[in-house]
Design a protein that fits this description.
The complex is a heterodimer of chains A (179) and B (500). Chain A has four helices and seven strands; from the N terminus they run H-H-H-E-E-E-E-E-E-E-H. With 179 residues, chain A is an alpha+beta fold. Chain A has two domains: 37 residues; 101 residues, Beta Barrel (OB fold (Dihydrolipoamide Acetyltransferase, E2P)). A five-stranded mixed barrel of chain A has the order 1-2-3-6-5. The termini of chain A are far apart. In chain B, strands 1-2 form a two-stranded antiparallel sheet. The radius of gyration of chain B is 22 Å and the shape is globular. In chain B, helix 1 packs antiparallel against helix 3. Chain B has 500 residues and is mainly α. Helices cover 68% and strands 2% of the residues of chain B. Chain B folds into two domains: 203 residues, no CATH class; 288 residues, no CATH class. Chain B contains 22 helices and two strands. The chains are: A alpha+beta (179), B mainly alpha (500). At the A-B interface, strand 1, strand 2, strand 3 and helix 4 of A face helix 3 and helix 15 of B.
Chain lengths: 179, 500
């Protein structure tokens, strides 16, 4: 009897553990799926359908361009997704993760922000912006190697020689004036 | 009978064209020096190549067509129109070499847009453009704003003759000083003083906005050049929206208005005669048209429910309107928002503002205030003639530096040039519609190009048909030069083929 009870309790325990394992697995799957559902929205979509997204929490990805402009406890970060750049208003402590900002010599960090989208932000004079609550660096930026074309260097040398000869001839040889 | 151009004509035109091209070549030293200083090696090579090509061409023309003869009116006009075309082709070389423009046509588009102080742009990946290329984009606006030919000849060529012809050819029909050299020097003095003050104001604002010191002042100088010369290029793809700053917007509005004012009025201001501002027909008309077009725009925005609060409506509506009216083209909204958030009435308000423009002898394009003022004065005079008894003598006066009696010789050119602009706006709109763009969008973009404004509702894009790009280039060119020199060139070409 005690053996049966013991066996039953063992089965119950095993089932309970399985149920917990299943629940955890489902939770993980749900979270994973949940993340993919919160798809990033392009700047074109946000600008063209600004009224539909107004006030909603959106996820936006883009390269940090220009500079991070600190304003008190917050900062402006401009993110370019390849089509347009959008202004992101975010707490200053969150922008510490950004190491590279895009310019001629640098490819900026690719970041993902999540926050409230405003078609016409009342706090910022009607700007179309995102008030981000989170920022995640997806890919670190890097310095761009400058490539000097050898063809262009040769051409510049050749043209430079022609220019100098022409200049000297202009100064030294006075052209015959046409009547 | 149409006479074929003589060899002399071609020699004189080519010689002076060579001098202008040489002057343009020298200006390329500035971005070259900046590129070297900032170790932007590839851009430095781009500018070296462009400079060499420009100087070689200038030297060849100057050497092989050497002459001591002065320019006559026709030759002066042709030198001006050809100089602007050559400036476009040569100025586009460093832009195209940078790889940020898809084709040479696109680079020419931006080059003409810069020289003509328009501001429409086809540049790709602007946020990664080098400092030196960005300086060049803004510098060509500064040069174009003052007048390419006048800049090139007055700064780089000693003792040039025929200045007044070319001054008029570049759409400046008012002398500030008795001679053109002094007038040109005064325009430079005003521009340099404002450049220093404007760059300081914008630079300090940039610093307070959290930008680095170098970027603050570099952007400050670029934005000043684009605002004072009512150009509209900006170093970043978001235009003025990049800065997210009300003080920045206010300062740019002040600079845009200063750029839209007649240099002659600046002279009177500097000479301690501020009353002239309140009496002058141009400033009065400017104030009236700003008010009227803003009312139309604001009513449209209110009707569309574009902005949730009156203050926001004012900030967004007024900025785009002033930017359009002064012919600048800075934006604090995205191009598509003109179509998604604004309604037709608001767009019509901005189109009217763009079509009207600023003052003559300023850096703006479009019809211009004095012509609008004169046309309305003439209309008032005609109405008075109808109302009053037949024997009554109706005299109409207006104030422009001094009291002037209104005569047909002022009304006629004002009406002809106004008609020319209206035709130009309409023709560009028809080309846009031919390619399937809606009427209002086409008219908006066409007016923006022909009036040298630069606001865009989204048509100006790298993917737009080449025919529209070429149309806008012609509109920018003809609109900036106010037709006369362009028509003279066309007449010259016609005479070369059909003349005897």
């Amino acid at each position: 009897m005690s053996h049966v009870t013991c066996h039953t309790s063992h089965v119950i325990l095993r089932n309970a553990i399985r149920s917990i394992q299943g629940a955890i697995l489902l939770g993980v799957v749900f979270l994973a799926l949940g993340k993919s559902f919160a798809q990033t929205i392009s700047s074109t979509e946000l600008i063209n359908k600004a009224k539909d997204y107004d006030g909603q929490t959106v996820v936006f990805q883009g390269e940090v361009i220009g500079e991070v402009m600190a304003r008190g406890e917050y900062a402006w970060v401009n993110l370019n997704d390849g089509k347009n750049a959008l202004g992101i208003w975010i707490k200053k402590d969150l922008v510490g993760k950004i190491a590279n900002t895009g310019s001629y010599k640098v490819i900026g960090d690719l970041v993902e922000v999540s926050g409230a989208f405003h078609r016409s932000c009342l706090v910022h004079g009607g700007d179309l912006d995102i008030h981000a609550e989170s920022l995640q660096v997806l890919k670190s930026g890097n310095r761009v190697k400058q490539h000097l074309s050898s063809h262009r260097q040769k051409l510049a040398f050749g043209l430079g020689t022609i220019l100098i000869i022409l200049w000297i001839s202009t100064v030294l040889i006075k052209p015959r004036k046409r009547k | 009978m149409i006479l074929k151009p003589r060899k002399d004509d071609i020699q004189i035109i080519a010689y002076y064209l060579g001098k202008v091209i040489l002057g343009l070549g020298f200006t390329m030293f500035l971005p070259l020096v900046l590129a070297l200083a900032l170790k932007e090696r590839a851009p430095a090579l781009d500018f070296l190549l462009s400079l060499e090509i420009t100087l070689i061409l200038g030297l060849l023309l100057e050497r092989f067509f050497k002459t001591d003869k002065s320019l006559n009116w026709m030759q002066g006009m042709i030198v001006v129109s050809l100089s602007w075309l050559m400036a476009m082709f040569l100025g586009a070389i460093p832009l195209f070499l940078s790889g940020h423009w898809v084709s040479y046509l696109d680079a020419c588009f931006d080059s003409m847009s810069g020289f003509a102080t328009t501001g429409l742009a086809l540049v790709q990946n602007l946020d990664h453009l080098s400092y030196s290329h960005n300086l060049w984009r803004h510098l060509i606006m500064f040069i174009g704003g003052q007048g390419i030919v006048i800049v090139a000849l007055s700064l780089f060529v000693k003792g040039f003759t025929g200045g007044f012809t070319m001054y008029v050819g570049e759409a400046r029909d008012e002398r500030i000083m008795p001679n053109i050299a002094h007038t040109s020097q005064f325009i430079w003095l005003v521009s340099i003083v404002y450049l220093i003050l404007g760059t300081l104001a914008l630079g300090l604002t940039g610093l307070l906005n959290g930008m680095s010191a170098f970027n603050s002042f570099f952007h400050g100088a670029c934005i000043f050049m684009a605002a004072f010369d009512t150009g509209g290029f900006a170093p970043q793809s978001q235009s003025i929206l990049y800065y997210h700053s009300l003080p920045y917007e206010i300062i740019t509005v002040v600079i845009m208005i200063l750029g839209a004012i007649n240099f002659k009025l600046h002279y009177h201001l500097w000479m301690g005669n501020p009353k002239e501002i309140f009496k002058n027909i141009e400033t009065r008309t400017f104030f009236a048209t700003i008010l009227l077009t803003f009312l139309i725009t604001a009513f449209g925005l209110y009707e569309a429910g574009a902005y949730p609060k009156a203050m926001v409506l004012f900030r967004k509506g007024f900025y785009q309107l002033i930017s359009g009216h002064t012919g600048t083209g800075f934006q604090t909204i995205y191009a598509r928002q003109f179509l998604t958030d604004w309604n037709d009435l608001a767009l019509v308000g901005v189109i009217c503002a763009m079509a009207l423009g600023g003052a003559v002898c300023s850096t703006t394009g479009a019809i211009k205030m004095i012509r609008i003022g004169i046309i309305f004065k003439a209309l008032a005079q005609d109405i008075k003639k109808i109302i009053l008894p037949e024997r009554a003598i109706v005299v109409q006066k207006f104030h422009h530096i001094k009291e002037v009696f209104l005569e047909d010789k002022q009304v006629r050119p004002a009406l002809i040039i106004t008609l020319g602009y209206l035709l130009l706006y309409g023709l560009g709109a028809i080309v846009g519609m031919f390619y399937g763009y809606p009427f209002l969008n086409s008219l908006f973009e066409s007016t923006s190009a022909a009036a040298n404004v630069g606001l865009s509702c989204g048509i100006t894009d790298v993917g737009m048909p080449s025919a529209i790009k070429v149309t806008y280039i012609i509109q920018m060119w003809a609109g900036r030069l106010e037709f006369m020199s362009v028509l003279t060139l066309l007449g010259f070409i016609y005479a070369a083929f059909k003349g005897k």
